[in-house]
């Protein structure tokens, strides 16, 4: 039997509401997207590892501390656990965009760190779910399947031109499609391609 795949999740815009032009600096700023807790409970049975990979340059810019970010993630993980879901680890890049680090998405550093921590992660059997170009680029660089969740408006043009494996309105919509009929996940994208042609 094929081992269960790994799910890589972006945070802002997928799990919680994006704060456009700002960062989620404290737990009170962290608001789950609709039905995300149900989605994570559903996905827990279908993925061997579920990890979050998130760029948090607000730390490097001095707008929030590492402790602030840790408090936000404690709140997130506790709520997910209470709802019967699972996030196995959260990786974040605290660096500024101009720092030249290898962890900031679309860099693959956080995914490689996850593979170092969970040696059975196989990127060919992994899904990257995010709302940004950088998420899709990270996934594609490592040969993962890529799912775009209601993409960022400021990247709409680039995202429309991008070949991804599926597009969904929400993590919940992806979870429902994936878990009720894993094979049908590609139907939506195939339909979109036909519509474009
Ligand atoms: Zn970094």
What do you see in this structure?
The chain is α/β, with parallel strands linked by helices and 197 residues long. It has a single domain (6-196), classed as 3-Layer(aba) Sandwich (Rossmann fold), CATH 3.40.50. It has eight helices and six strands, in the order βαβααβαβαβαβαα. The protein has helices at residues 36-44, 57-60, 66-82, 109-117, 133-141, 156-160, 171-180, 187-196; strands at residues 6-9, 49-55, 89-93, 126-130, 145-149, 166-168. A six-stranded parallel beta sheet has the order 3-2-1-4-5-6. The radius of gyration is 16 Å and the shape is globular. The protein starts with 5 loop residues before the first strand and ends with a helix. The model has no long low-confidence stretch (mean pLDDT 92).
Keywords:
197 residues; alpha/beta; 8 helices; 6 strands
In CATH terms, the superfamily is HAD superfamily/HAD-like
**CATH-scheme architecture:** 3-Layer(aba) Sandwich
Determine the number of helices (DSSP H or I, runs of at least 4 residues).
8
Biggest sheet architecture: 6 strands, parallel
Summarize the structure.
The chain has 197 residues and is an alpha/beta fold. 37% of the residues lie in helices and 15% in strands.
């Amino acid at each position: 039997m094929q081992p269960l795949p790994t799910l890589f999740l972006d945070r802002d815009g997928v799990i919680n509401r994006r704060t456009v032009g700002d960062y989620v600096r404290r737990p009170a700023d962290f608001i789950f997207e609709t039905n995300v807790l149900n989605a994570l409970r559903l996905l827990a049975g279908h993925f061997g590892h579920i990890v979050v990979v998130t760029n948090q340059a607000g730390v490097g810019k001095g707008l929030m501390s590492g402790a602030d970010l840790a408090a936000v993630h404690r709140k997130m993980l506790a709520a997910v656990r209470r709802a019967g879901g699972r996030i196995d680890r959260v990786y974040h890049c605290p660096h500024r965009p101009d720092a030249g680090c290898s962890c900031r998405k679309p860099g693959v550093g956080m995914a490689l760190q996850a593979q170092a921590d969970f040696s059975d992660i196989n990127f060919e059997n992994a899904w990257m779910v995010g709302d940004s170009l950088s998420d899709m680029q990270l996934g594609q660089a490592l040969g993962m399947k890529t799912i775009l969740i209601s993409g960022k408006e400021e990247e709409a043009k680039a995202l429309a031109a991008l070949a991804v494996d599926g597009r969904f309105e929400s993590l919940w919509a992806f979870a429902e499609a994936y878990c009720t009929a894993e094979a049908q996940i590609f139907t939506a994208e195939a339909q979109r391609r036909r519509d474009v042609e």
